[in-house]
Amino acid sequence: MRAAWLWVALAALFLLHHDFWFWREPRLVLGLPAGLLYHVTYCLAVAALMAVAVHRAWPPPGITEADVAGDPRG
Amino acid sequence: MTEAVVAAYLVLVLGIGAFARRRLAATGEDYFAASRTIGPVVLLATLFGTHMTAFSLLGASGEAYHRGVGVFSLMASSSALVVPAVFWFVAPRAWAVCRRNGFLTQVEMVRARWESPGLAVALGAVLSALLVPYLLIGVMGGGITLAEITDGRVPPWAGSLTMVLVVLAYVAAGGIRGTSWVNTFQTVVFIVLGAVTAGVVAAKTGGLGALASRVDPALLVHGDRIPALELLTYILIPLSVGTFPHIFSHWLSAESPRTFKLPIVAYPLCVAAVWLPSVLVGVLASADLPGFEGPAANSVLIRAIDLHAPGALAGLLAAGVFAAVMSSLDSQSLALSSLVTRGLGRRRRGDEGRRQLLLGRVFVALILTATFALSLVAERSIFRLGVWSFTGFAALFPLVVAALWWRRATAAGAWASLLTAAGLWLYYFVHATQKPGYTIAGTGAMPVAVILPAAALALIVVSLLTRPPSDDALDRFFPEGSR
Fold first, then answer.
1. Which domains does chain B have, with CATH numbers?
2. pTM of the full predicted structure?
3. Rounded to 5 degrees, what angle do the CA atoms B242, A53, B474 make?
């Protein structure tokens, strides 16, 4: 399977979404509640993962050579 | 002042729509898919603007007012993970299949995949039924918001009517190209205004640090107001992005598979940029503006502006809310029109060109007129339908994935999935409609956690028990060389 690492990484991020370790953490970090800061950082981490994916695993599955050839910049 | 700012904003939007009209070619493919010429920046902005409604600004603040910062993890960071994954796994594949076969709607795709006009009609009917309350919520929400911001000087019906007329003008004029261009502008507007609003409110109130002692501590943690099972199961809701007809239409307008790269990467950043300010304002308002009960808290963003920055900023905020509403309303009405014009209508010679363009415009006008008429008689309880609409769309996700990815999926399997999703959705809807915030047996688990797996299971089991699809149909979807 191509880019299996991406699916593993997405599964890991799915697990990390459930941040029970910050579940009842009231501290403010950098002016934000710790749990909120965690989830903002989480969004950045997803963006970073997808940036790696589009560079290292492009094209995504299910695209034919003809689809790629039809792409003037492909 | 507020009315003047809103009027100036609407004139600007109409100007962009008029400019897009000059590029419109007289074909259905250009009207509904911009002849597949939309580039990455516009695609990102229009997908995001279409997906985010006014309730990302107002509803997020209202939810955070009651439930605290956990709303961000529940609704925002879950979308930040799921939506790019759907864009990666489904969108380029759907684009390629539809381009190869000339499809412009999901209904056309399903009809060809399973050679079943009846299934296509049923799917079109379900998609339309789920979309109508969504349209209605937008039209009513825009009118109500403008009335609140102007202290009642503009009645709700007048705000709704103005919004509908402006959307009708630029959608009819420019089709999906005009819609995408306007959405790009509107997305920038509501992202910037959301950040400005949060900055002003935080500066005036001294920020969360200063308010920490006054804000209910339960609002600064996830665990008190968000059950763990709700967080776990809510993550299925954003799968609805894979089945929304209005998002699907924008996918098909992309220039190439490569165009999806930017939306895949930048979507989580846009989610954070819009939801963080909205959630923060909601939490801050809980200290400054106590006493809002239930859905009334959806107006805390407006009240916070009124309290801390009246005048021009209030007008800009109204423009931002209009931007968020219109950037969804335009795509939804256009998608519904394309479902009827392309998907459910009888295909015959001469359907292309001016006839299809005319039909598309007529249906956009009819849909918006009917929505406005309904908004005059509908009750505010319609707003509760929002999450049910998302649940219904998410339940159709297995069907769309099977159409694109699973050769063995059969028409009978697709029927079974559709009927299971519709039946269970109705069951939960009837049981829960009078209970805001309903979860299964009060555990926190969302109904989607039952409906979606059941729909997937029905599709798999019935497909394996019935004859495989014909080679002709499969060849159109799975040509040699599919990676």
1. 2-380 (1.20.1730.10)
2. 0.91
3. 50
Contact B73 A71 (CB under 8 A): no
Query: Which residue among B208, B266, B279 places its CB closest to the CB of A28?
Result: B208
Cβ-Cβ contacts under 8 Å, A19 against chain B: 73, 222
What integer is the mean pLDDT of B383-402? 89
Residue pair A10/A49 in contact (Cβ under 8 Å)? The answer is yes
Q: What single-letter DSSP state applies at residue B254? A: B
* pLDDT tens column, B163-187: 889 888 888 888 888 888 888 988 8
Token pair recorded at residue B241: 């992005």
Question: What's the pLDDT tens digit per position in A12-21?
Answer: 999 999 988 8
Question: Any chain A CB within 8 A of the CB of B89?
Answer: yes
**pLDDT tens digits for range B21-62:** 777 776 777 878 888 889 999 999 999 988 887 666 677 888
- Look at A23 and B222 and tell me if their CB atoms are within 8 Å: yes
Instruction: Return the H-helix or E-strand segment holding A33.
Output: strand A32-33
Cβ within 8 Å of B, A 4-63: 6, 10, 13-14, 17-20, 22-26, 28, 31-33, 35-36, 39-40, 42-44, 46-47, 50-51, 53-54, 58-63
Distances (CA, A) of B2 to B6, B138, B316, B319: 6, 20, 7, 9
Check CB contact under 8 Å for A26 and B220: yes
